[in-house]
Write a structure and sequence with these properties.
Number of helices: 23
Number of strands: 8
CATH topology of the largest domain: Rossmann fold
Number of domains: 3
Largest sheet: 8 strands, mixed
Shape: flat
Structural class: alpha/beta
CATH superfamily of the largest domain: P-loop containing nucleotide triphosphate hydrolases
C-alpha cells in the first residue's frame, strides 16, 4: 500500500533536502509535484486541494525558508498534515458499553464484509477477551449465512443459528436476544451487500439500525476501488450514519488514495486495515505510522508489535538460554525463519524498517530477496537430519549433495544458507547483550539492519 505515492513523494521531497536554502518558488514547484502524486494515487481532488494549500501556508513562511534545514522542515510539515488528514490518532472499535454491544457491518457486495466480520470477531475474542456472537443478515446472496458459519468455525467464534426464510430485521433482533440471554459481550451483524447503493438497501440497513441501535456502524470498503470507495462511504454515511471504516485488500492497493480520502471526506475514522486473506491479517489503523510509511520513515513500532504477537514466549526464553551459552544451531535458524513468515513475510518486514531507500529496495528485489527464498531455505533445513541441524560442522561434501538434491536446491544455495547461519549466530550473540527482552522482541526480525537484508541478499 502507498508504494507509488511513497516513491513519488520520496523523489520530490528528496530534492528539497538536498538544497541548502529554499525559495518560495522551490516550495511551489515541489508542491505542484506533490499535487500530481496525490491525484495519481487516487486521492479525491477536494482533499488534495486542501492538503496542498495547508502545507504551502506553513512551508513558505519565514521560519521555514530561513531555517538551517528548510528541506527537513517541509518534510515535517507534510508529515504532520498527512497525520491530520488521516485522523490524527488511532480510533479502535469501541465495544466498551453495556453488553451485548451491537456492531453492524455495512458495505457493497464483494467488499470483503463477511470475511472482515470473522476477522473482527477473532480479534475481539483473542485480544480483548470478549465473548463474541456473529450473525449473518444476508438472506439474498446464496450461502452467505453458511459462509459466515464456516468462517466462525475457523476463527473459533460462535455464529447465530440459521433459520431459513427469516428476514434481516428479525435475525438482528434474535441475535441481540441471544446475546443478552447467553452472556455475550459483542454481537457482530453482517448485513447484506449490493452491487451499488440503492434505496432498498439503505432502507433495509436503516431498519436493522433502528431495531438494534448498534453502538458501532462500520463501513467495509475495498481499498482497490479508489475514489469509488469514497463515494460509497459518503453515500452510506448520509443514509445510514457511520461511526467508522474498515478498509480491505490494502495489501493489493499500491496507491492508497482511498485511505487518504475517506477520513477527510466523511469525517469517520478508519479503524482497521485488512492486509491479507488470513483471518489474522488485520491491523489497527494508526495515522502517524501510516504517514511515516508514506514518507519512507519506516514503522518500527508496528514491526515490534508484530514480533510480540507472533513469537512464543517459551520459544524466546529457550533461545535466550541457548544464546547465553553461545549456542545457535540450524534448528534455531529454522525457528527464526518461521517467525519471519508469521510476521507477514520478509518483504513486509523490510517495508517497516526506516532508511530503506528505493535504490536499496530495488537492490533487494534484484537479489531475489522474497518470501519464496525463505521457503527454499526451510526446505533445505528440512532435508537435513536432526543431528546435522544441531551440529552444522558435520555438513561436508557428500552431505551437502544429499541435502541439496533432497530440497531441489544447489550446493551453492546450501553454502549461502550455512554462511547466513554463521552471520546470524554472530548477530544473535550481540543481541544477548540486550538480554531476554531483546531476543523476545526481535529474534531474526530484530537483526535485520536498516537498509539491507543482512545475510539474505545472496540467495537466488
Amino acid at each position: 500500500m502507498f508504494d507509488s505515492l511513497q516513491e513519488r513523494l520520496g523523489e520530490v521531497l528528496g530534492k528539497l533536502t538536498r538544497r541548502g536554502a529554499l525559495s518560495e518558488a522551490d516550495v511551489d514547484a515541489a508542491l505542484r509535484e506533490v499535487r500530481v502524486a496525490l491525484l495519481e494515487a487516487d486521492v479525491a481532488l477536494p482533499v488534495v486541494k486542501d492538503f496542498v494549500e495547508a502545507v504551502r501556508g506553513e512551508a513558505v513562511g519565514e521560519k521555514v525558508l530561513r531555517s538551517v534545514t528548510p528541506g527537513q522542515m517541509v518534510i515535517k510539515i507534510v508529515h504532520d498534515r498527512l497525520v491530520e488528514m488521516l485522523g490524527a490518532e488511532a480510533v479502535p472499535i469501541d465495544v466498551e458499553a453495556p453488553p451485548p454491544v451491537a456492531v453492524m457491518l455495512v458495505g457493497l457486495q464483494g467488499s470483503g464484509k463477511t470475511t472482515s466480520c470473522a476477522k473482527i470477531g477473532l480479534r475481539l475474542s483473542t485480544r480483548q477477551k470478549k465473548k463474541v456472537l456473529m450473525a449473518s443478515l444476508d438472506v439474498r446472496r446464496p450461502a452467505a449465512q453458511e459462509q459466515l458459519r464456516v468462517l466462525g468455525e475457523q476463527a473459533g467464534v460462535r455464529t447465530l443459528d440459521i433459520v431459513p426464510g427469516e428476514p434481516p430485521r428479525a435475525i438482528a433482533k434474535r441475535a441481540m436476544q441471544t446475546g443478552a440471554l447467553e452472556g455475550f459481550d459483542v454481537v457482530l451483524l453482517d448485513t447484506a451487500g449490493r452491487l451499488a447503493i440503492d434505496d432498498e438497501k439503505m432502507a433495509e440497513a436503516a431498519a436493522v439500525r433502528h431495531a438494534v441501535k448498534p453502538h458501532e456502524t462500520l463501513l467495509v470498503a475495498d481499498a482497490m476501488t479508489g475514489q469509488d470507495a469514497v463515494a460509497v462511504a459518503r453515500g452510506f454515511h448520509e443514509k445510514v450514519g457511520l461511526t467508522g471504516i474498515v478498509l480491505t485488500r490494502v495489501d493489493g492497493d499500491a496507491r492508497g488514495g482511498a485511505a487518504l480520502s475517506m477520513r477527510a471526506v466523511t469525517g469517520c475514522p478508519i479503524k482497521l486495515l485488512g492486509v491479507g486473506e488470513k483471518l489474522e491479517a488485520v491491523e489497527d489503523f494508526h495515522p502517524d505510522r501510516i504517514a511515516s510509511r508514506i514518507l519512507g520513515m519506516g514503522d518500527v513500532v508496528s514491526l515490534v508489535e508484530k514480533a510480540a504477537e507472533t513469537i512464543e514466549q517459551e520459544d524466546a526464553e529457550k533461545l535466550a538460554r541457548k544464546m547465553s551459552k553461545g549456542k545457535f544451531d540450524l534448528d534455531d535458524l529454522a525457528q527464526q525463519l518461521r517467525q519471519v513468515q508469521k510476521m507477514g513475510g520478509l518483504s513486509d518486514m523490510l517495508n517497516l524498517l526506516p532508511g530503506m531507500s528505493k535504490a536499496q529496495q530495488a537492490q533487494l528485489k534484484n537479489a531475489k530477496v522474497d518470501d519464496r527464498m525463505i521457503k527454499r531455505q526451510l526446505a533445505m533445513l528440512s532435508s537435513m537430519t536432526p543431528l546435522e541441524r544441531r551440529r552444522p560442522e558435520l555438513i561436508k561434501a557428500s552431505r551437502k549433495q544429499r541435502i541439496a538434491g533432497g530440497s531441489g536446491s544447489t550446493v551453492q544455495d546450501l553454502n549461502k544458507l550455512l554462511k547466513q547461519h554463521q552471520e546470524a549466530g554472530r548477530m544473535m550473540k550481540r543481541m544477548t547483550k540486550m538480554g531476554k527482552k531483546g531476543l523476545r522482541r526481535g529474534g531474526l526480525a530484530g537483526m535485520l539492519p536498516p537498509g539491507g537484508g543482512g545475510g539474505f541478499g545472496g540467495m537466488r
